[in-house]
Amino acid sequence: MAHQIETPQMNMELVDIPGTSLKASPIALGTWAIGGWMWGGTDEAEAIRTIHEAVDRGITLIDTAPVYGFGRSEQIVGKALAEGARRKRVLIATKVGLDWKDGQPFRNAGSARIHKEIEDSLRRLRTDVIDLYQVHWPDPKVPIEETAAAIAGLQRVGKIRAIGVSNFSPAQIEAFRKVAPVHAVQSPYNLFERAIEDDVLPYCRDRNIAALAYGALCRGLLSGRMTEQTRFAGDDLRKRDPKFQAPRFAQYLRAIERLDRFAQANYGRRVIHLALRWFIDRQDSMIALWGARRPDQLAPIAGLSGWHIDSSAMVEIDRILSESIVDAVGPEFMAPPDQLAA
Ligand code: NAP
Question: Is residue 101 one of the residues assigned to a domain?
């Protein structure tokens, strides 16, 4: 089945995924929260409405993974895209290489696991081909060459279109590329989490590889809706995210307040527009993954076109960040264990 991408209504140029015929909207939908696990649960009907809203608003790439809700996110994405023939309007990006037992994830990027996971993902997603198949985390127990060879085999037989890796360092990407092509690299990246600017981003830029940025709103922080009184329910990962704990939370909130004033004064927009537009003006072949989980959360799409952040504004934004956040911390707390705890 061929999947033609129709013209989006987002009013933004599509981004090429170099080395492939694929193009995607620069803002894409991430569906980890839609899977519920580590985000305090999910409401399937609302999740489906969110995916429909995203496609209707011109988003043409949806990112998911088997581990998100232990199959739930992929199932919801598959169900949502089966309705109204939406599948042919979007690229599906999913992942491979995280296993789980009794609700505990662990890395498993061996060949046997990959051959099982691809079939499970195709079934849950109700499709015959995955557009972008990404190794979720490097697995130190398995040679990268074994993982890469298994993924290359899936591409050869037409089960996947393009290949990605996620949470890989340049050295790990380099080892992978000796065996299989890498068309996209997915890493944590947003206004507050900038570590890849020192290594992965220049690596991708120099080799013409697409960069997918995850956590575009830094787990909702950059939406502008949080206050010091904001609390999270159930298994929500933000209960243990160090950015959401004192004393750092106040620093990040101070940065958001200043960025919001900057966005209003210079563009007549809010901090959420600034945080998302920032990706589009940052680097070519960049796709930002936005984890909206309610249809209304996607309304800011309407305010992303018709203006841009120039280089002097980029400098001013960085000045606000360095003045407000004196004790920055990264997303390292999210890394899954190499193996199950005994
Ligand atoms: P995010 O967009 O930074 O945060 C998601 C949260 O932001 C939502 O759960 C929602 O939370 C809040 N939010 C979104 N839009 C909002 C709005 N308009 N107003 C207020 N709050 C809003 O993204 P993320 O889910 O952490 O990351 C995005 C995607 O990247 C994931 O879904 C996944 O596809 C991918 N990802 C990949 C990896 C990896 O290892 N490769 C890791 C993390 C993420 P509330 O409504 O609950 O506040």
Answer: yes
C-beta of residue 269 within 8 angstroms of C-beta of residue 238: no
- Residue-number span of the structural domain to which 179 is assigned: 4-327
Distance (angstroms) between ligand 1 centre and the Cα of 217 equals 6
Annotated catalytic residue 203 = no
Distance 184 CA to ligand 1 centre (A): 20
Q: Look at residue 183 in the predicted model and tell me its pLDDT.
A: 98
Quote the CA–CA distance of 159 and 60 in Å, as a whole number. Answer: 20
Q: How far apart, in whole angstroms, are the C-alpha atoms of residue 88 and residue 86? A: 5
In-domain check, residue 145: yes
Residue for token pair 């992978």: 176
61 within 8 A of 29, measured Cβ to Cβ? yes
Best of 218, 244, 289, 332 for a ligand 1 pocket test (most atoms within 8 Å of beta carbon): 289
CB-based contact 190:252 (threshold 8 Å): no
User: Which residues, given as ranges, of the chain have pLDDT below 50?
Assistant: 1-8
Radius of gyration of the chain (CA): 19
**Count of domains observed in the chain:** 1
- CA end-to-end distance (rounded Å), the chain: 45
How confident is the model over 130-171, as pLDDT tens digits?
999 999 999 999 999 999 999 999 999 999 999 999 999 999
Instruction: Tell which one of 219, 238, 252, 334 to mutate to probe ligand 1, the residue whose CB is within 8 A of the most ligand atoms.
Output: 219
Atom 37 (ligand 1) nearest CA: 214
The single residue of 68, 133, 203, 252 carrying the catalytic annotation is: 68
pTM over 0.90: yes
> What's at 131, amino acid-wise?
D
Nearest alpha carbon, ligand 1 atom 27 = 215
Question: What CATH number has the domain bearing residue 65?
Answer: 3.20.20.100
Q: Which residue(s) pair with 287 in the sheet?
A: 212
From atom 25 of ligand 1, which residue's Cα is the shortest distance away? 291
pLDDT at 223: 98
CA gap 83, 105 in Å, rounded: 31
Query: Which atom of ligand 1 is nearest the CA belonging to 294?
Result: 46
* Residue nearest atom 24 in ligand 1 by C-alpha distance: 215
Q: Which residue has the tokens 């994405």?
A: 77
